Amino acid sequence: MELRETILRSRIRNILESYKSKNDFAPFIRKQLELIYRPLGLWGHAPNPHDDCETGLGVINVFPHSEHDSWSILNRFDTNRKVKSKLEELYENLNKDEDLDFHEWIVRNRENLFGPKGKFTHQLVDLNLTTIISGNRSEEFAVQKLQERFPRVKKIRRFCSGDIRDTRKGIDISIDFPRESLNVQVKPFKKISSFVERDGDTYFEVTFGSSVIINKYSQRNVDVFMFVDVDKNEFIIFKNIKTKIGQMTSTIVRFYEPPLATNMVFVTKQKIKRKDFEPIDKLFGAQTDILKNLEFRRAHIERMIEKEKQKKSK
């Protein structure tokens, strides 16, 4: 029993050692894919006939994302958490006779793990399919709604799977207006509610079905977020302004400004301030005057309205 636990601890330590650098795993997996598929003539850039498919180097023409793509699902293995977990599970179960570390085991078994006829390749590919299918549906729906919104726009481009504008900058769709482009990041949402605090703050709370880290999308690259529910035919669009966005949990994000566009109808709910803040007010001898706070906000808003009216009159 003790020997078994010692071996298990050793293997776990090997896995952790393999992740010394957070950037280590991705290039390592890409290298294994290249060693398999370059000799087969299945390594390169995806074709780019319409300037909407600018990929890096990767696996092509095998296990494609869709019938319209040549970019392979295998190229997602380097960053997919489910794939990493499955590889660790296989390592624990199959590396019983040899005390190889995680990287060594993958190198020795790469054909079985990632090869076109590999024993486990289809299992790993299938782990990505749900995300891919959901992403494709969401982006196709978003393009449809954007075309309805901007019928005279020059061009709406949905970038291909693996496009570097998507993988490196987070741009799923680009709308080409005469003088500029508007870059859109699309995400499926689970639920959206609108709230008003007792002191007058209002916001929209977006709940996702899986982890979404909104702040990783730079304002320089992504102009707006478009959240969609294909099954309910619903969408909502917010500007990407960091000071107006709050990441509450890995699956909940708040937007502290009205949406740019939506086809949803909201019933605003009152959100009560947490009571555990009240003793702090009392400790400092402060009294929260909601009416005074609202009056201050009204005066500020009225000044802003007046400024905007002056701009338009000029």
Could you provide a short overview of the structure?
The chain is of the alpha+beta class. It starts with a helix and ends with a helix. It has helices at about 1-20, 25-35, 80-95, 100-110, 110-115, 120-150, 165, 280-285, 290-314; strands spanning about 45, 60, 155-160, 175, 180-190, 190-195, 200-205, 225-230, 235-240, 245, 250-255, 260, 270.
How do the helices and strands follow one another from N- to C-terminus?
HHEEHHHHEHEEEEEEEEEEHH
The class by helix and strand makeup works out as alpha+beta
Query: What is the first-to-last residue Cα distance?
Result: 84 Å
Q: What is the gyration radius calculated from CA atoms?
A: 25 Å
Count of β-strands = 13
Number of helices: 9
Largest sheet: 6 strands, mixed
Return the domain count: 3
Strand order of the largest sheet: 3-4-5-8-9-12
Low-confidence regions: 18-22
